[in-house]
Fold this protein.
Amino acid sequence: MPAVSLNPSGPALVAEARRIFTARFGRAPTQLVRAPGRVNLIGEHLDYNYGPVLPLAIEPQILFATAPNGLECVRLWSAVFGEGCEISLTEPLMRGEPGWSNYIRGVLAGWQRSGRTLPGFDAVIVSDLPAGGGLSSSAALEVGMATLLEALTGAPLIPEEKALLCQRAEHDFAGLPCGFMDQFACVFGRADHLLLLDCRSRETTLIPWTADDLVFLVIDTQVKHDLATSAYAERRRTCEAAAHRLGVTSLRDWPEARLSEAESLLDAVAFRRVRHVVTEIARTFAAASAIRTGAWSELGRLMFASHDSLRDDYEVSCAELDEVVRLTQELGEAGGVLGCRMTGGGFGGSAIALVRREQLGWVWERLRSAYMCRFPRGVKFIVTRAADGASVLFSSQ
Ligand code: ADP
Ligand code: MG
């Protein structure tokens, strides 16, 4: 059985950030900030339908070591990418090279736009959060940078304003018209809590996670099928057109009790898309209730049902994700798995499973070997508890 430790690299990452900063900039950092990745427990393809989502911030994170430099520029170094850049603060902030610096340029621009002063500083970025792996390293980069600016200037943003500033950075500077779930999870996440985020009202509710014997296992299939981008746009259009046809502003407003009525008004494909959205909204609220009342088996059942709906009605799963979920279903509660589903946009990426901690080693081994029989590329695992949102770890000021 493999040794399973939660968040093994936290302290090592802090030491690495300090060491690299000192080596590159010839002095010690004055601030250290961190920003977590996130995973969505349930509520998939609901953000653009103005529904609820239920993410958690995870332990893998991006860490920034920083100090003011007294210059009119920002000097950055990303240890993951092994490259750095210098951004002038005397000229208007624009997109530039390297690509990853745009998430940061976007946050700097948003900070300036808010009328706050932007001091020159140096920063080193280290991370144990996979970049581009569907765990939202982009939001961690943005929210981490906003947190760094708060720490350097002592001028905090209102949390919602901070998340929205970061979302806009991704829209304007990275060219990605994303929703705001990732940035909200990274700002509002709390250790051992799930975040119920209403994508219509933007209301956030932290729900305590009291099951100490359960952990979240993120199972990365390491595949991304080409369909992902075009299918996302197509699903979104179908939902908007269906809402229009049903005479509601968004599918959030269509009650589950009226699904059969919707069936008579829509073509078969559009109806299945609507059925996913409407039932997933109900499952997400039911999952929040299950967490509140400690109904863990029920939560697991809702996760499996969510996967079925994404596979059959929304048709955004793929053979690899279906295989992971099938294997976990085979293990079942007796084998240590309460529930499992694909998470994220689909067509690859990761699944999330709810696993009993004491059976984790067995689940891990079983999944790894059985999955490899069909998909030799194998899976990667991340075990996590719900983590805190972005925070300042150290500040000498
Ligand atoms: P995800 O958010 O799912 O990880 P994205 O494609 O949205 O995937 O964002 C990944 C991008 O974020 C990377 O390509 C890179 O530009 C940037 N990024 C992530 N981590 C780092 C890092 N440690 N240093 C610099 N840039 C990073
Ligand atoms: Mg991202």
Remarks:
- The chain has two domains: 10-208+387-395, 214-384.
- The chain has eleven helices and twelve strands.
- Confidence is low (pLDDT under 50) at residues 1-6.
